Amino acid sequence: MKISIDGLHKAFESRIRLGIMSALVVNDTLDFNSLKDYLDVTDGNLASHLKALEKEEFIEVEKSFIGRKPNTSYAASKLGRKAFNDHLNALEKLIKNIAK
Amino acid sequence: MKKEQDYFRDLAEIRSMMERSSKFMSLSGWAGILAGIYALIGAYFAYGLLNSYGLEDNSYVPGTDKIEEYFPLIALFMLILVLALGTAIFLSHQKAGKRGERAWNTTSKRLLAHMAIPLAAGGLLILILLSKGLIFLAAPISLIFYGIALYNASKFTFEVLKYLGLIQIMLGLAGACFPGYGLLLWAVGFGAFHIAYGTYMHFKYER
């Protein structure tokens, strides 16, 4: 079960993963260090959350080199954008229900 | 299952992340105020230099086309530019530090890239015009291209920068219509409006 009862996607239960997706939907690509700066997390922590999103095929990973330094950049996939959008819609619905 | 306040916190986090990762919000109001002051002092000295070229007021008659004669003027404006940029970089660095961010990040790089192209094009055009003696166009064209740069950059930082850009473009066009007032309009655009903008930003976002 990937979607919980309230319509929210399990992959976005972690606020860090939610943050990663939020940053990636408004940027074409972001590299590891930029994401780390925005989220204020350790390398290992960020890497494991990115792995989880990659496994869901929500993000696309591209490894390259800048000079001799390896550089990994991340982009939101089509599937990832849709899932994020659905998640936002679900959140909106939940909040509307609270307001009623 | 999550609680109500969790939903709101999720939304707040999404919103803040989208903004932080797409816009550079560490521009300081003080940088605008100081840039305006440099520009006003610069305009005062430029006024003296311009008089020495023996230009007629309010006419489209070209001055000398020996570009060497304009070197003091070019040096003056380079000095203002370096001072204004240096101040903006220093203050942004400080402000970013306070916000727990780094000033040199994806958003500031994007902001600079989108400003640099119109500014470089305008700067080169002014040098070309000076080499033909068309000095009365220098001030209006710097206003117009700076305005375009600001308008362009406003997508990547505070949106009100857009209006500052539009004002500069209008002042530049007015300066092209009335060549005798080019420097005055330049002082209004780069001086007075920078100070007004910086003051507005400072009181709105930094207090």
In short:
The complex is a heterodimer of chains A (100) and B (207). Chain A has 100 residues and is α+β, with helices and mostly antiparallel strands.
Walkthrough of the structure:
The complex is a heterodimer of chains A (about 100) and B (about 210). Chain A has about 100 residues and is α+β, with helices and mostly antiparallel strands. Chain A is built from 4 helices and 3 strands, in the order αβααββα. Chain A has a single domain, classed as Arc Repressor Mutant, subunit A (Orthogonal Bundle), CATH 1.10.10. A 3-stranded antiparallel sheet of chain A has the order 1-3-2. In chain A, a hairpin with a 2-residue loop joins β2 and β3. Chain A starts with 14 loop residues before the first helix and ends with a helix. With about 210 residues, chain B is mainly α. Chain B has one domain. Chain B is built from 7 helices and no strands. The longest helix of chain B is centred in the middle third of the chain and has 28 residues. The interface between A and B is medium-sized, with 24 and 21 residues.
